[in-house]
Write a structure and sequence with these properties.
By secondary structure, the chain is an alpha/beta fold. The protein is built from nine helices and ten strands. The chain has an eight-stranded parallel barrel, surrounded by six helices. α1 packs parallel to α8.
Length: about 280
């Protein structure tokens, strides 16, 4: 079972719109159809940022999440749903509300406050930036609420400090269920960039029996995926992270990116995990 590789698809993201890629889902029906196509290509977890269907802007509205999740579950009941708790300039109670209301099997769990920007990495120009608040008090509160509602936290590691923060809070008895699950996020302006040696160093500091996945923004996507496949981790793809295919063409959907992940898995000798195998490997439910 340890050789199996789990594919996650982040279908939309807070910042990705149809202007970036016309296949970005906005409506519940679009989320449901994209989820089904991803499942057909081996994806077993979908990460959901709800959208306002009229504007394509991200929203933490509980009803918007209910509508999307209901449509996804109806179209593809086997799929594991991972709801985002990430939102800038949004009160903590609004960020956690959809997760507590819906009680998905997983939810993102952000681990450090940081500069969070959208930038041109070639020129150094920062187009947009925010202070992304994730205080220790917020992290502890989110962890307790997730545990009470049987939601598995996916610890999002944007830089090494985020990992150290989680390991610090982990010392509080009963805050997290073991084994824990982590995700290393590479390429966000304000966070860490992908580096093979850094990646191996971070993996080496994970708690015993912990699982992890990687996601890379833009050009970091393929590099991080390759490293994770070799090093025993799992892979996230999707239009949230990259709107293009490795050849530079626009992706026809997150599902199309899953195709090249399966090719990587074959080369690495990693069979793709089924939904039930994913649940067993991540100790969900």
């Amino acid at each position: 079972m340890k050789e199996k590789l789990i594919i996650t698809a982040a279908l939309a993201g807070a910042a990705t719109t149809k202007n970036n890629n016309p296949n970005t889902p906005y409506t519940p029906e679009e989320f449901a159809e994209e989820t089904y196509r991803c499942y057909q290509e081996g994806v077993t977890i979908v990460h959901i940022h709800a959208k306002d269907p009229d504007t394509g802007m991200a929203t933490m509205d509980v009803q918007a999440h209910r509508d999307i999740v209901a449509a996804v579950r109806d179209r593809c009941p086997e799929m594991i749903i991972n709801i985002s708790t990430g939102a800038v300039q949004t009160p903590p109670e609004q960020r956690i509300a959809p997760t507590i209301d819906i009680k998905p099997e997983m939810a993102s769990y952000n681990t450090n406050s940081m500069n969070f920007g959208i930038a041109n990495h070639k020129t150094g120009e920062v187009w947009m930036e925010f202070i992304y608040d994730n205080t220790f008090a917020m992290m502890e509160d989110f962890a307790r609420q997730m545990k009470e509602n049987n939601v598995k936290p996916e610890c999002e590691i944007f830089d090494p400090g985020g990992l150290y923060n989680v390991l610090l809070l982990r010392r509080k008895e009963g805050l997290f269920e073991e084994p824990m699950h982590f995700q290393f996020v590479y390429g966000v302006a304000g966070g860490m960039q992908f580096d093979p040696l850094l990646h191996l160093s971070l993996v080496g500091q994970l708690p015993q029996n912990a699982t992890y996945s990687v996601c890379g923004v833009g050009p970091h996507q393929q590099k991080a995926a390759l490293q994770s496949a070799i090093a025993g981790g799992h892979i996230r793809i999707g239009l949230e992270d990259n709107v293009k295919m490795p050849n530079g063409n626009p992706a026809r959907g997150s599902w199309e990116q899953a195709i090249w992940v399966k090719e990587i898995a074959v080369i690495a000798g990693r069979p793709i995990a089924t939904a039930n195998e994913t649940r067993e490997m991540l100790h969900l439910g």
